[in-house]
Specification:
Layout lengths: L1 H12 L6 H14 L8 H10 L5 E5 L6 E6 L5 E6 L3 E6 L4 E7 L5 E6 L5 E6 L4 E5 L5 E5 L6 E6 L5 E6 L3 E6 L5 E6 L5 E6 L5 E6 L3 E6 L4 E7 L5 E6 L5 E6 L4 E5 L5 E5 L6 E6 L5 E6 L3 E6 L5 E6 L5 E6 L6 E5 L4 E4 L1
Antiparallel strand pairs: 1-28, 2-3, 3-4, 4-5, 6-7, 7-8, 8-9, 10-11, 11-12, 12-13, 14-15, 15-16, 16-17, 18-19, 19-20, 20-21, 22-23, 23-24, 24-25, 26-27, 27-28
């Protein structure tokens, strides 16, 4: 194994004599096929991060007549759902690059759209004060969740798909039963405006993010606030659990990403590099890497352990508003105010 590492390292350091395509092929095979994680061979990793483009632009989906604000993969990684500025939602097959479904009904700005874990439905929320469940196959609205008298900023499914959680400008977190459409629990936050909420991987906790720069951890069964996470100096736009539920990543209008330990609520790392507000952030499925997007028009990859920047993906001509990672970790999808969706592999 050391001999292989030496040979590949030698190729990388003599890049002048090799084409970029050949170097990238070597590195692609090392990282993707051999499945070697960062940190395994420290010196070699330094060479990799210097010379490699771990992800490259694979495809650009164009032709949309309006801005795009949120994008999410289906659980099988074949389709993406995204929100457009004309108050519609679309599903596209990324292999074909073609629209397979379109949803109309919301009367005002749509803030989020997410696939159910089984991929059969999507849920969306809007400034029209409604949450709607749609059938992917028929494109029809199945259930309308009503109860909030304020714009709804975020909605997410529980890991088992039985419930959804939402947050709105009234600072109330609501949990809903998917089958009946009934509200089953309310949790009132201390902030005036909640911007994001998500279940933990085991469904027992929630993390919420707010306009007042604070995040909160919640006990789902008791409906009680557990701990407060403070550190950001601007509104927290997104907060998500790591795949194992032990950590949280957050992003903010203060241009930073922060990593927190759930058990101690201690801030572990501050990731700096973006020159504009950070709009979305997510752990890779293995929990080793983080990806983020920003108003600075870039997507950035970070080492979750060290907090160091690994790669910058450039291509969007305007603010990058959302991103997601395929379930196998091999594909990144991003959306932007430039009215394009870009697929990176």
């Amino acid at each position: 194994m050391k001999k292989i590492a030496f040979i590949i390292a030698y190729c990388a350091t003599t890049a002048v004599e090799q084409s970029e395509k050949e170097i990238n092929t070597i590195i692609h095979n090392w990282i993707r096929i051999s499945r070697v994680k960062f940190g395994w061979i420290t010196d070699f990793d330094r060479i990799i991060t210097k010379y490699a483009k771990h992800f490259q632009l694979h495809k650009t989906l164009k032709g949309y007549k309006t801005t795009i604000h949120r994008v999410r993969f289906s659980s099988d990684g074949r389709n993406i759902v995204f929100v457009l500025g004309d108050n519609t939602i679309q599903i596209c097959n990324i292999g074909l690059g073609k629209q397979i479904q379109k949803f109309k009904g919301h009367e005002h700005w749509i803030k989020a759209a997410e696939f159910s874990p089984d991929g059969q439905n999507i849920v969306s929320c809007s400034e029209d004060e409604t949450i709607r469940l749609w059938n992917v196959k028929s494109g029809k609205e199945v259930i309308r969740f009503e109860g909030s008298l304020n714009p709804v900023h975020c909605v997410n499914f529980s890991p088992d798909g039985a419930n959804i959680v939402s947050c709105s400008t009234d600072a109330i977190i609501r949990i809903w039963d998917v089958n009946s459409g009934n509200e089953i629990r309310q949790m009132e936050g201390l902030s005036e405006d909640l911007l994001y909420v998500q279940f933990s991987p085991n469904g027992r906790m929630l993390v919420s993010a707010s306009e007042d720069n604070i995040m909160d951890l919640w006990d789902v069964s008791k409906g009680k606030r557990l701990r407060e996470l403070k550190g950001h100096s601007g509104p927290v736009l997104c907060a998500k659990f790591s795949p194992d539920g032990k950590f949280i990543i957050s992003c903010s209008e203060d241009n930073t990403i922060r990593i927190w330990e759930v058990q101690t609520v201690k801030e572990l790392k501050v990731l700096c590099g973006h020159s504009g507000q950070v709009n979305d952030v997510k752990f890779f499925p293995d929990g080793q890497t983080i990806v983020s997007c920003s108003d600075d028009k870039t997507i950035r990859l970070w080492d979750a352990k060290t907090g160091k920047e690994i790669q910058i993906l450039e291509g969007h001509s305007k603010e990058v508003t959302g991103l997601d990672i395929s379930p196998n970790g091999n594909t990144i999808v991003s959306c932007s105010l430039d009215a394009t969706i870009r697929i990176w592999k």
